[in-house]
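Agenda item 2: histidyl-adenosine monophosphate complex prediction
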Amino acid sequence: MSKRYSVIKGFRDILPPESEQWQRIEEQARRLFQAFGFREARLPVLESTELFTRGIGETTDIVAKEMYTFSDRKGRSLSLRPEGTASLVRAYLEANLAQGGPVKLFYSGPMFRYERPQKGRYRQFYQLGVEALGYAGPAVDAEIMVMLRLLFEQLEVKNAVLEINSLGCRECRPAYREKLVAFLRGIKGELCEDSQRRVEENPLRVLDCKEEKCQAAVRQAPSVLDFLCADCRSHFDGLKKYLELWETPYRVNPRIVRGLDYYMRTAFEYLAEDGLGAQNAIAAGGRYDGLVEELGGPNVPGIGFALGLERLALLVPQEKEIKASLDYFIVYTPTMQAAAAKMLLVLRRRGARVDSYLDAPPKSLRAQMKLGEKSANQLIIIGEEEYQRKMIIIKNLITGAQMEYKENEIPIAGQPQKVMA
Ligand code: HAM
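Presented output:
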């Protein structure tokens, strides 16, 4: 026997019926994002490494430890994208979109991070993300949070909780940072090794370390919300006002800091109260008003989020009745194979989702029916006697009901139907 191969650690195959559940989620999300004025951007999975070191920040875990980075044949350093925001801003600048005023874009696709795999955390994972560029006020911050709330409602995800924070800006964050570092130096001995390193390098990240001892140690840490300048405070108050206006419940959590350096002002996460375990952030994002400039563009504000498709899929209830992927499966008696093959083309041309077993050697009618029961909601039965009268039988596999139809009047979902008496 030849050698078999396994999928790489942290990577997954998404097969039916899971892939079909993903399609439903993606379709719903696309429709909703478009209803909010977002248009699609399709971006490459490979970028120059520097885009991420500059965009996300050299000292972040994502850049320092988690990127899939390699040299191409000409020795250029490339990385598989660990997220979509930096790529989208690059594309936005390259296409000169800033000239046309505010822009709302969405994207989807695989991202890559060399993390320790566990439930809801993979090395290749899928994100659905949106970015709004050129909107400075808090209305759009609330709008994208409301959009996620509506998506969860439509998908019947019940336990998603919105947490918001403000991280301040270039004006007010330095004073907070200074206070925080002074506090953290005092409790350094109580922190895990990673957090100890971060005290000087990236002190805000210490606040969201998942280690219990770190969480206990930072309980008395100064809150960023006490240090906001007047503009940041009024932005945060505006956000809360819009969320209230749009009936979207939220909790203020001054511990949300996010793992990417580009954020300022608004930061938020939708957390699953149960069902996801430790990796409970379904979607997360925030405002990144300095990023476009950092990547060589004009001073354009931005905000967005990304949601993790694997995590969302774990929370979406499975459809109650098992929904088959086909409308019809055609079964036939031995002499009717050509009639079945012809009918396949006619129905497929009309837009029906239909299949049949035409492979050799032929299967018995019973065996064909078994195949059909696994994949379709209804069977079309072609028998010699009926076919001479130009009739076929449709058997509904959910109700068990059986009816004769004229061969050329087979009803197709979404098209006007003529039901026979
Ligand atoms: P992020 O928090 O790194 O933000 O990722 C967003 C979401 O992607 C997470 O909340 C989670 O659902 C999912 N996710 C992240 N890592 C993994 C993983 N290893 N396995 C499975 N799911 C994962 C960003 O990526 C930002 N670009 C979001 C953003 C857009 N901010 C502004 N605009």
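Discussion summary: Residues 83-85, 113, 115, 120-122, 125, 127, 129, 131, 259-260, 281-286, 288, 304-308, 310-311 surround histidyl-adenosine monophosphate (CB under 6 Å).
Owner for follow-up: CH.
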